[in-house]
UniProtKB/TrEMBL annotation:
Cofactor: Mg(2+)
Catalysis performed (reactions): 4-nitrophenyl phosphate + H2O = 4-nitrophenol + phosphate + H(+)
Chain residues that bind Mg(2+): 24, 26, 245
Binding, substrate: 220
EC number: 3.1.3.41
InterPro entries, sorted: HAD-like_sf, HAD-SF_hydro_IIA, HAD_sf, PGP_euk
Gene3D superfamilies cross-referenced by the UniProt entry: HAD superfamily/HAD-like
Key words, A-Z: Hydrolase, Magnesium, Metal-binding
Top-rank taxon, per record: Eukaryota
Note accompanying the cofactor annotation: Divalent metal ions. Mg(2+) is the most effective.
Protein name: 4-nitrophenylphosphatase
Entry annotation: catalytic residues: 24 (nucleophile), 26 (proton donor)
GO molecular function, one term: phosphoglycolate phosphatase activity
Annotated organism of origin: Pisolithus tinctorius Marx 270
Amino acid sequence: MTVRLSAAEQYEALLNKYDTWMFDCDGVLWHGDRPIEGAVEVLDMLRKRGKRLLFVTNNATKSRRSYKTKFDQLGIEAHVDEIYGSAYAAAVYISSVMKLPKDKKVFVIGMSGIEEELCNEGVSYVGGTDPADCTLEPFSLADFTPDPDVAAVLCGLDSAINYTKLAKAFHYLHRDPSCRFLVTNEDSTFPSAHGLLPGAGAISAPLRFALNRDPLSIGKPAKTMLDCIQAKVQFDPKHTIMIGDRLNTDILFGQAGGLATLLVLTGVTSEDHITGPNASTVVPDYVTPSIGDLRSAEPS
Ligand SMILES: O=C(O)[C@H](O)[C@H](O)COP(=O)(O)O
């Protein structure tokens, strides 16, 4: 059963109970470039109390290095080794788990975050932000010279998605069934500063439809993301809490890893998703309207 937090003592008890705090980012800490009210103070308070903070985001548009810049710009203390993005996790998966041979390449649908993380892991790629692929010119197979070394397709959130990128990805996956089909994450929507937008799952959906094939998803709720964190950080799941705004990614991810879960209502999940006849079967341990509410543990 979900505990609804509202009293200062409840927030204080929560702070005392968990040592490691894993935060989703979009919809929990910020909307686009706007921090959620109170988020900065709450993170500062947690650090002052000696808590370990980890930032676990499905948003693959940025690398860990660019996230660090974003945290700095928002006035939030964060270190690169505390940041786990699905672009980073996907690059680590391709280099260390899949062990893509050095002479093979990944065709990317996505933005610079994926490219940067693939580079960091020594993985070669084509596509991505290549201007030749960022075109609205009609695509024709007759004019396309496929790269013979492409052995995987990785698809993430891409705000410049077009037919050329989809057609090339489709071609690589269709010509060779052993070509690996990976997606950074499958979020259906993306909570931007000005409202919901189609998410990364909506970008890969045309490929799934055309190929009648499901990709391997790396980000939350998949265990791949937790494996990636656990390979770098030691934490006790019993004393760890995952804070998120989405039931079928953040909260499911926490539950699958044996972590406590706290749902906030500043992102994609609203009250009617957790109560009423159509409520989700994914039930968080705690719910609070906003991360900023934790400030009440330390009244000013
Ligand atoms: O579509 C996406 O990629 C996601 O909606 C988004 O970027 C999720 O980021 P998170 O909430 O995990 O920070």
